[in-house]
Amino acid sequence: MLVVLSIALMVVDARFTLLKPVRGQMSLVLMQSYLITDVPQRLWQGVASQFGSRTELIAENEKLKTEALLLQGRLQKLAALTEQNVRLRELLNSSALVNEKVEVAELIGVDPNPFTHRILINKGERDGVVLGQPVLDARGLMGQVVELMPYTARVLLLTDTTHSIPVQVNRNGLRAIASGTGNPERLELRHVADTADIKEGDLLVSSGLGQRFPAGYPVATVREVIHDSGQPFAIVRAVPTAALNRSRYMLLVFSDSRTPEQRANDAAQAQEAADRQSQAATPDAHGAPAAVPGAATPAAAPATPVKPGVTPAPAHAPAAAPVAPVAPVTPAAAATPSRETH
């Protein structure tokens, strides 16, 4: 009876969604068991860190200082490249590429099925995780979220046979599709032309096509390219850059959720605002700020005071009218600049 009941539950769970709420509630109970089983590992790590040798700590400290210095030098170059990228996008009237928001998650379980590559992390729907959210570690992309629970989530790794990701060769921008093979150490590029410019050692990065994975993250490194004269496509095998079977901590990427139309509209509005500000700040030929379309025209400057004994000219005097004699100018008056002078 138990065997029949187990088979019935597996069939219902595989073909229907009736047990999905039950699975979500059971995850709350299983979460406590995961925490309990992880206690010995945490205790061992705490004891090992307390009794680490002083020599190892000093050597590790020196190594970290060297790496920090190298990373700071690269960061300075990266800041300059980022500013250059922003300026080029402004010239192309394109929206700026903002940095994605990330959140750290921890691995708490691995799917025991040898034919699927899935892991369980300690962040779920209550933490803002969404379906299809990209997951990466310190080396590159790992996969995407395929199942949500209140406090946990399942991640489908890149090497699963049902997973594919659009990539491009970082060297020349050649686009391709990287598919999982069921081997945690290998990906394959499908339908790559035999004459395509791709070679061993090329870095494959995410292309951003499909609006699922952000562009520019490392995915794999080409290990082998096999050309067969009798086949129209080459056989390209690659190794994932992420440590899929070793990483314990990973990052959840919160990308820009706006649609392409919304991003284009926001970019156009930002460009119009920048144009208005540049017009307002640009001086005209006389040194005064240029008039902004739609802005109010400033009132005319007051007329110069008329000295006693001088008859003021009419406001609309004809061009051929004789000029009235001007009274002698005193030194004090000569030192005072006229209000009409720009």
UniProtKB/TrEMBL annotation:
Gene3D superfamilies: Rod shape-determining protein MreC, domain 1, Rod shape-determining protein MreC, domain 2
Highest rank taxon of the organism: Bacteria
Chain ranges of the Rod shape-determining protein MreC beta-barrel core domain: 108-253
Keyword tags: Cell shape
Segments of this protein annotated with the region Disordered: 261-342
Biased composition (Low complexity): 265-342
Protein family: Belongs to the MreC family.
Protein name as catalogued: Cell shape-determining protein MreC
Lineage: Bacteria, Pseudomonadati, Pseudomonadota, Gammaproteobacteria, Pseudomonadales
